[in-house]
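User: I'm curious whether this sequence folds into something compact or stays loose and floppy. Could you predict its structure so I can see for myself?
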Amino acid sequence: LKQRKLPACAKKTLQEPGVIVIKDQVTECIDCPFDESLQDRVRMVVGLEHERRIFGMMSVLLRRWFTPVEEEKKLLEEVARDIGFALYSIEIEEETRRKERLLQGIYNAAPGAIGLVSDRVIKEVNDYLCEMTGYSKQELMEQSIRILHLTEEEFKVDWNQLETGIKTSGIGRVETKWQRKDGKEIEILLSSSSIEPGDISKGIIFAALDISERVQSERALQQSEERLRIINKIAHIFLNVPEDRIYDELLEVLAEATESKYGIFGYINEDGAWVCSSLTKNVRERCQITDKDI
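Assistant: Here's the prediction. I'll summarize afterward.
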């Protein structure tokens, strides 16, 4: 054992199921780890096993005149199974505690908002998420993640999409809106993954990134590009379209820009009268003027 080698009885235990009986240690178990003064004993050896995994072996010494029968063997097997299960449970508990410490370390050290949900109920959050939302940790713990979403519908749609992404590719992502405790809305990029691959029932860890500034910048850029597009269209009309069609073309551009189906385009002449140069078909039909030429 000091040389990290297994004696013959241990090797036999790994190869054969059930209880191994060693009647003569000198011939059956060379290099036995037991003291020579005990080599006149009969031994029963059995593996400590659970779910086909060997955690160790147990050896029981008996007087030479005692011959093990099936009842004693079965009793020893039951004891060995109980010990094997106990060792397995201890290992699982240690692994669970290790994962919990690891997750807690990630929550505390990560430079961003992170949380853990189980069945869409908040089980853990870090300080960054509390700072982002304005809620304290105590206010969020054991609450439905719905508390952060604007509406029930958005909550269901977002988390259905996140969970579907986890099941199909291992990672779920969605851009959504959250509502802080003070009522302010913030744009959020949510990324999520299950603790156990492919099994969301064991819990989902998520990271939330505040992208409000980025979204505002993108919207401002889109609005700027849209204004520039309209200006270019209007400039093109004045430079290239015949005078008798200018007002019709301008009205079409402005109706599109304002997303309106009703429009009138005109000007005030030198006498102070309103001159209608163009109007959309919808306006003409809505006015239903039958006795006047438009």
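Summary: The first strand starts at residue 20 and ends at 22. DSSP finds nine helices and ten strands in the chain.
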